[in-house]
Design a protein that fits this description.
With 346 residues, the chain is α+β, with helices and mostly antiparallel strands. 34% of the residues lie in helices and 23% in strands. The protein has eleven helices and 15 strands. The structure holds adenosine-5'-diphosphate (ADP), magnesium ion (MG) (2 copies) and potassium ion (K).
């Protein structure tokens, strides 16, 4: 069987995706699978690379080029990846990868793929939709105000009053459809709120303003289709004011604590909320569910990431490793879950 590994992509998490792809290439069971590399450039060009039948000697195999005479790849039309007896691994993060667009494309060309379907991907990527669904499920979240660009332009004063009437400073302002902290700012006053909204609208016409809180950040890994399994929570131990893109991906200032040092009650609740949220969002395959934990042991669900960072050392695989599921076996399970869902839909 062939695994079509889609990596790179148009989002800010392009480089993380490449790192994740390399980890997967090293761990996949080549006795059973061949891997077709398909690289998506930052401009959205699809480039077909080699078909791997064994573990590559080094990561240079992922450095595909297409625009020189020494090109190592071939520009393709996306629909030409379609073939029988293949599963797609869309190892892409953020908009245009994790938000249902690629998933819709894969549904259209009728190929099985790893991870969440269209609706779950789109709702998980959109911070306003996520909040609405979790609210309906009665899962605790920080207070928030959705702020659409049109309404803000029409009457900014009313929006400020609405935010200040519902929330206290500091507030966190985020574009709705984004990830990896892109476009997110913290505001201590009305002027900063105004600037932060302007910043968020660079990325999306929908923004959300949230109550800022002092909290630890703990994360639970979820795996499954109908049978949903969760791990113990792990903690992202921060040494920066907020967990932004640079600290996440560039400075490597992150320490993971697995399992998180929290009470049994918090562990249980985190797993319960993660599972409930996943089911309410219609999850399949995998997700990483992220929480805030205050010093009063209040737990707030922050978000679900339907294609979390997936290097061997990322939180999601590390949480499963701690539960006794090795990285290679985790990939194998994800392939089987993808095939199962595909067959059920036929
Ligand atoms: P992304 O999808 O980009 O990861 P998040 O909502 O997880 O967006 O926000 C990124 C980071 O910003 C979080 O991991 C956390 O460190 C900080 N943050 C986000 N919202 C809040 C909040 N309401 N209060 C305090 N910190 C927050
Ligand atoms: Mg996210
Ligand atoms: Mg996050
Ligand atoms: K998300």
């Amino acid at each position: 069987m062939k695994i079509v590994l889609l990596y790179g992509g148009r989002s800010a998490e392009h480089d993380v995706s490449i790192l994740s792809a390399y980890s997967v290439l090293n761990a996949i069971y080549y006795d059973y699978y061949q891997v077709q590399l398909v690289f998506i450039t930052k401009d959205g060009v699809w480039v077909k690379g080699p078909l791997l039948t064994e573990k590559p000697k080094n990561e240079s195999v992922l450095n595909l080029t297409w625009d020189t005479k020494d090109a190592t790849g071939e520009v393709i039309s996306p629909s030409t990846i379609k073939e029988e007896d293949a599963v797609v691994f869309p190892l892409l993060h953020g908009p245009n990868g994790e938000d249902g667009t690629i998933q819709g494309f894969l549904e259209t060309i009728d190929m099985p793929y790893i991870g969440a379907g269209v609706l779950t991907s789109a709702c998980g990527m959109d911070k306003i939709m996520t909040k609405y669904i979790l609210q309906a499920a009665g899962i605790p979240q920080v207070p928030y105000v959705p702020v659409l660009k049109n309404l803000w332009k029409e009457n900014p004063k009313q929006i400020f009053e609405q935010c200040e009437g519902t929330l206290l400073y500091p507030m966190f302002i985020k574009p709705a459809n984004m990830g990896s902290s892109v476009g997110i700012s913290k505001a201590e006053n009305r002027e900063e709120l105004q600037n932060a909204l302007q910043e968020a609208y660079k990325y999306d016409t929908r923004a959300i303003v949230e109550q800022g809180i002092e909290a630890r950040e703990i994360e639970v890994a979820i795996l499954g289709n109908e049978d949903v399994r969760t791990t113990l929570a792990g903690e992202i131990v921060k040494d920066v004011a907020f967990y932004d893109y640079n600290s996440k991906y560039i400075d490597n200032q992150i320490v993971m604590q697995i399992p998180a040092e929290v009470t049994e009650d918090v562990q249980e609740k985190a797993q319960e909320f993660a599972k409930k949220a996943y089911i309410m969002l219609g999850g399949s395959g995998l997700s990483r569910c992220d929480f805030f934990l205050t010093n009063k042991n209040e737990l707030f669900l922050n978000e679900l990431n339907t294609m979390p960072g997936f290097t061997q050392y990322s939180m999601y695989p590390s949480l499963w490793e701690k539960m006794g599921l090795k990285y290679g076996d985790l990939i194998e399970e994800l392939i089987q879950l993808a095939l199962k869902r595909y067959k059920q839909r036929q």
